Amino acid sequence: MNIVICDDDDKVIKNVANVCRNVLSVKSKISAFHSAETLIQNLTNDEELVDLFILDIEMPGKNGLWLKKELEQYRYGSSIIFLTSHDEMIQEAFGRYVIGFVDKVSFDKDTNVLADKLRLFEQVESGKRVVNLKDESGSFCIQYDRIIKIMSEHVYTYVEYATGKIVNGLFMTDKKLVRRSLKDWEAELGNSFLRISKSCIVNMEYIQRLDHKVILKDGSEISIPRSNINKCRDCYFEFCKTKMKWN
After folding, report:
1. Residue 133: its H or E element
2. Which one of 36, 124, 168, 245 has the lowest number of neighbouring Cβ atoms within 10 Å?
3. Contact (CB, 8 A) for 78 and 60
């Protein structure tokens, strides 16, 4: 478990880190930063994907709301818990990956207000869907939300996925060749996956833009057959509307 804390108060950072170590059942790597700017600067270095950000909303310089928007450029699906003593900022801080808010005054008196959020977070993490696959090197599993795209290769498919490494602010990928058809994949994939052609399925969470072609968040491009463009646009539009409801 990889957790990042950002707060300008050393005492808060220490208390939050202690609660994380005491509550979470898995061993956690915990990193701490005193400003949003410093955190973002460190994310441009080689880093593992972060499972959870615990962020103070109100900090000197750039605040937690700015930080949340910046993180969306570097992180795909990392959960966020906000620490706040300013209730009026909560509405603006809501988002799809924001799983809770902790009042700092209450937390100072009773750390259980954070512990409850961490237990919920761990339950969500443990319930994430994974697919078990097998290739020439043996068996392995991949989280569905890490899959970026699936390309057909005769009776096989190439599965490209995020490895968990970040380099210069971009997620690193790898791919596996497995004996499974696109039809088989479609039967079990969720609504966030889009069949853009006879040979390709894309996870819409990783799409940066879709018009006459798909542009992914890593900068790669995939062509869409003319006959499929309108259908793909409509599906992606509906997906984006659903995401807006979350946000």
Report:
1. strand 130-135
2. 245
3. no
* Per CATH, domain 130-246 is 2.40.50.1020: yes
CA 155 – CA 105 distance, rounded (Å): 59
Contacts of 124 (CB under 8 A, 6+ apart): 79, 99
Name, in order, each residue with C-beta under 8 angstroms of 54's C-beta and a sequence gap of 6 or more: 3, 4, 5, 6, 7, 16, 20, 80, 81, 83, 114
How does residue 95 score in pLDDT terms, banded at 50, 70 and 90? low
| Highest CATH level, class, for 2-126 | alpha beta
Q: What tens digit of pLDDT does each residue of 184-242 get?
A: 998 888 888 999 999 999 999 889 899 889 999 878 899 999 999 999 999 999 988 87
Q: Answer for the pair 74, 169: CB distance below 8 angstroms, yes or no.
A: yes
pTM of the shown model = 0.65
What CA–CA distance (Å, rounded) separates 124 from 113?
18
Residues of the chain with CATH 2.40.50.1020: 130-246
CATH 3.40.50.2300 in the chain is located at: 2-126
Entry field: residues in the chain: 247
**How confident is the model over 14-69, as pLDDT tens digits?**
999 999 999 998 888 999 999 999 988 887 655 667 889 999 988 888 888 888 88
> For residue 76, what is the DSSP state?
S
Determine the Cα–Cα distance for residues 247 and 245; give it in Å rounded to an integer. Answer: 5
What would you measure as the largest C-alpha separation in the chain, in angstroms? 62
